[in-house]
Design goal:
The protein is of the alpha+beta class. The protein is built from 9 helices and 10 strands. It has 3 domains: 73 residues, Integrase, N-terminal zinc-binding domain (Arc Repressor Mutant, subunit A), CATH 1.10.10.200; 91 residues, 2-Layer Sandwich (Alpha-Beta Plaits), CATH 3.30.70.980; 69 residues, YebC, transcriptional regulation domain (Alpha-Beta Plaits, 2-Layer Sandwich), CATH 3.30.70.980.
């Protein structure tokens, strides 16, 4: 999973194109809207909305755009009704893939996701085939320069389950419902938060020790991630640092 995270970071640094930014905005706005519809429009009482709201702000989505999305979610403004759908499948080398989608047309999206899997070298599986290999968690990332003892004290008191060094960052894992609270506690302790998000963490990983294998798997992941309805792609692969360096060169 760390390999997947690093690849996403590399793509983020490289891909500052307007088109990519517009697509990201659209996905974030949709996440805010659905969170408001499912749990109410008050971020103080809706932990998922609070996390998605902050994620949108972290990515420079305008405040009025976020507020309109919340109002569409609560029914104060008219809008398209989206439903959450998940798909499960495999990339090459036995890598399990879990895909979260928000769609206004389940049949269309299902057909398109199946085509993305097959055309990029993966395969769609039956519901439940790989979901059991992942746990729903919150992940908060802070700079690696933060003092470990200070970080541990603030994070663990707020409900963090694990703190792990990942390259030049610290990765704090917690229950999904505690994500916003952990972030707030860190910020109150004067610790800069790079990102905070809900994710699906794999219980075990498949190491991709060759560039060719990594490319095959990333072709599937990137193709799925590029679909407009896809909100998150999670996979249980890990790419060793030397292979990642070759890929990002």
């Amino acid at each position: 999973m760390s390999g997947h995270s690093k690849w996403a970071t590399i793509k983020h640094k490289k891909g500052a194109a307007d088109k990519a930014r517009g697509k990201l905005f659209a996905k974030l706005i949709r996440q805010v809207e659905v969170a408001a519809r499912e749990g109410g429009g008050d971020p103080d009482t809706n932990a998922t909305l609070r996390t998605m709201y902050q994620k949108a702000r972290d990515n420079s989505v305008p405040l009025d755009t976020i507020e309109r999305a919340i109002k569409r979610g609560t029914g104060e403004l008219e809008g398209v009704s989206y439903e959450t759908v998940t798909y499960e499948g495999y990339a090459p080398h036995g890598v399990a893939v879990y895909v979260e989608v928000l769609t206004d047309n389940r049949n269309r999206t299902g057909s398109e996701i199946r085509n993305v899997f097959s055309k990029s070298g993966g395969s769609l599986a039956e519901p439940g085939a790989v979901a059991w290999q992942f746990d729903r968690k919150g992940v908060v990332v802070v700079p690696g320069s933060v003092d470990e003892e200070t970080l541990m004290e603030a994070a663990l008191e707020a409900g963090a389950e694990d703190i792990e060094a990942d390259g030049d960052t610290w990765q704090i894992t917690c229950e999904a419902s505690d994500t916003a609270g952990v972030r707030s506690a860190l910020e109150e302790a004067g610790i800069e938060v790079t990102s905070a998000d809900l994710t699906m963490l794999p219980q075990n990983t498949v190491e991709l020790g060759e560039v060719s294998a990594a490319k095959q798997v990333l072709k599937v992941i990137d193709a799925l991630d590029d679909h407009d309805d896809v909100q998150g792609v999670y996979a249980n692969f890990d790419i060793p640092a030397p292979v990642m360096e070759e890929l990002s060169a």
